User: Fold these one by one.
Assistant:
Number 1:
Amino acid sequence: MSKPQSVTAGLVVIGDEILSGRTQDANVAYLAKWLNEEGVILKEVRIVADNPAAIGEAVNTLRDRCDYCFTTGGIGPTHDDITVDAVAAALGVAVMYHDEALQMLRKYYGEEGLTEARKRMARVPEGGDLIKNPMSGAPGVSKGNVYMLAGIPGIMRGMLEGLRGVLAGAAPMQSGTVTVFSPESEMAERLEQIQSAHPEVSIGSYPFFRQGRIGAALLVRSIDAAEIPPVLAEIKEAAQAIGAECMDGEPQE
Amino acid sequence: MSKPQSVTAGLVVIGDEILSGRTQDANVAYLAKWLNEEGVILKEVRIVADNPAAIGEAVNTLRDRCDYCFTTGGIGPTHDDITVDAVAAALGVAVMYHDEALQMLRKYYGEEGLTEARKRMARVPEGGDLIKNPMSGAPGVSKGNVYMLAGIPGIMRGMLEGLRGVLAGAAPMQSGTVTVFSPESEMAERLEQIQSAHPEVSIGSYPFFRQGRIGAALLVRSIDAAEIPPVLAEIKEAAQAIGAECMDGEPQE
């Protein structure tokens, strides 16, 4: 059976506020899940400072290495919103006003309200397109395989709604989980054998200490859903062989 | 007045589970704040897959570029815990058992309970040291300027307690915040002027839409605390000039 090829994305999080610890990122996990629904695997994330050289280096590496490169943050109207300029410089193109974006801003703020600062929000790398935002109207910007999204989670999510079905994705990654209530070190040798016997899946062991119970969630991932249940069954057998309680699915929070 | 030189760190988050969206990272913000308390600036974060080549590339780049390189995740006993091996390969050294770590494990599990899988947790890159964990006993591993921490937040935090005062830090970054209740685009031009007039500080504008109110938190950062209040005062003046309400500090959640 031929497998669909994997389609990958990288993400550049532009955020002094995240590197300073001021803001807890909420976008990586959301984007990762959204990409998975679209059949795209998130391969690498880089969180960089609000610095054109740092942004440019990360964007150029990830747009080259992955099928798609996303950025979050830095597309607002203030002096520290430098994503469009940094990406344009990285791509070697000029920055221009996007006609439709200007019209949207003119409609929203009125002709007099359209200050130079607000016009900044209509700037795109030359030849770039808008990412329509069905939820708030505020668009993102795309140019080639680079997709520039807002950093505010609610607005970023709206922009992703506008991108549904746009990316060329493969089959989404499937997964199944068994939770074993024993220290993961007791299962480790057997798990290694199971992984070696099943190179077609990827087995992850995620230990937890929760409500006084020790255990590990054992996650089996594959693009082909049919490959998962036999491996889960082997893991359950291995758990029973050492007398450990186990259950289907994730441990409860 | 001479400024202390900045001391920097990079972080490599080793985590298929974060790239798949399964787990929400909770370590970046915590480590960022902890580093700041130690006078170290977090310069870049890379989240990479559980893959030796990806880990090695990120570690080699960030340990070269920053004064310190931290990793989180992948130091447990299972087959997918490959951080020590990947870092050793990146550094060009062998992997060995650490005597003291073996003793700790022997004490914890007993001679018979010390299986090959559990012995994995005593492996370090040749010449590496343990990071003592005053909270749980489970140690991290350091080698040169690379510090390998657990991925489970509670254990990572314990290891950081063991590292208090160990890094050579500069003065910690100071910051002050004014919240202005107006769309940030109304303040943008004036803010740019204030930033240009005060290159000694860094001004960040973090817009919010919360409980029906629109505004922006304006954060002024500097290693020298004395430089912050005059800039905050100028921002407040600028807000009052456009008739916008403002308050000291962050907007309330």
Number 2:
Amino acid sequence: MRIDGLQYCNWSRPIFEEMRAGGLDAVHVTIAYHEVFRETVLQMERWNRYFEDHGDLIVQARTAADVEAAKASGRTAIIFGAQNPSPIEDDIGLVEILHTLGLRFMQLTYNNQSLLATGCYEAEDPGLTRMGREVIAEMNRVGLVVDMSHSADRSTIEAAEHSTRPIAITHANPHDWHPARRNKRAPVIEAVVARGGMMGFSLYPHHLKGGSACTLDSFCGAMMDAAAQYGVRHFGIGSDLCQDQPDSVVEWMRVGRWTKQIDYGEGSKDNAGFPPQPPWFRSNADFPKLEEGLRAVGFDADSVAALIGGNWLDFFDKNFGPQ
Amino acid sequence: MRIDGLQYCNWSRPIFEEMRAGGLDAVHVTIAYHEVFRETVLQMERWNRYFEDHGDLIVQARTAADVEAAKASGRTAIIFGAQNPSPIEDDIGLVEILHTLGLRFMQLTYNNQSLLATGCYEAEDPGLTRMGREVIAEMNRVGLVVDMSHSADRSTIEAAEHSTRPIAITHANPHDWHPARRNKRAPVIEAVVARGGMMGFSLYPHHLKGGSACTLDSFCGAMMDAAAQYGVRHFGIGSDLCQDQPDSVVEWMRVGRWTKQIDYGEGSKDNAGFPPQPPWFRSNADFPKLEEGLRAVGFDADSVAALIGGNWLDFFDKNFGPQ
């Protein structure tokens, strides 16, 4: 079972074919960064066309059983997620509506303060808001996973504590390995995994030690260190692969409609676009190389299987849908 | 199995309790008259609250199997429908989105011309539009039933012919019995039932011979005549019960946002509000009386069972969801 805990590619049949070439059984795909409800539904409509037109390669999944059925049919399961709570606007009733439409992950923040919590680029983090606590309870009820990848430390720890079900950091790396602003400090990881949470290791170059020059050995070594410190069952891959996207898309991710200025996020004026991927992970077809790398740093077969997808599948089984 | 093919009550726990008292196993409820997509979703959110708060009495159904499960659990299944295509706006992709959210019936028109077809109050009926043909094909694909209760004759006949799956007139009566504008002429009924379609007999007083003074014997006699002419398996109940609604709601049904004038629809200036129900059908608790009336006019036990719910259940089984 091979599962990627987050991607946002410029979707096309060649990319779906690469998912099959790489033996991907499931991919959590982002369908919203700053989109409001109606715009998010338009993205779902776009995916419905992909499912109609490329039903030989991909199929929507809402449960772990759907992922296993997709694998059995030789297709890659697609699971919807949002990187911001913008799709629920100010309406808690939209949590269940979006869950019914297949949403299974939702970040409480994307870099900035939201109605629910604080993003990792704010100067101050006052923690969960009143609405944030209510929305987490509603997400717990219906089985929509709280994702804190782009959130600030206090908000993340409070979300892990307030949630009655495990939460996720779908795509980030340990701050101890590479101190990027988006990577997670030890107390944050500890709060998430202590309650059964999951963290997906990111292959987005700004999250990697050495950036685009990061080696497969260094990446897999960081997973080994995390497994030794927190337990192998809490980790997986969340590649953050943004294949074939024009640089206008990274600008949309960073700027949305919240400012009239340019914000470079993890980049800079001289390096504003998508950074080049490391040569050993350029597409879904490279997924088997991650397995090789994990074996090479000394993981046994069971641990490799858990990290490359088994842990995500267990997490889906426990956390998608009502308890 | 007792099924009502259409209601739009002012929903409350007492009404859900009357559904149980009347032994209703399923009710098709209207969630949109003139509402656009986002407003329709708000109505679904409202129903989600009803399902949470009154889950001992009602449960949402998307399939015939869901209806049978509801019956087995001693609850009434609720099936969503729209009386207008306003919820899909001008976007064919919303057909599948709304179906995923549980919509199972959609009228192509509500009295007026729509983007899809012509309503029964227009002076001219040019038949299905270009978009109408496309939307019917999409409704056929996903399993969203075409309902032509408020449509004009030519549009209805063309819809029955163009649709590759049976269509419905969820709530209307034969024009031969009572020549109201909303009741259906023989060639219209013939076109619908010849292709496996269903028609629900309405208990809305303007559709009844004698109006509010119509007798149970006359109503059941009309069902007997229809069964003799077209076959018993094509008919059921679609009561159009609008219990506890203020008259402002019938005004919304008739006027929506399409005019600044008052339109009295089937009423008149002197009789603008909801007409009083006949004394033998004032609430869901009166449903068993309809069975008694059908037996009294001479239907055998199998026919009564078919008319009171079995025919709708068979229709749901064949027409909800992809083929």
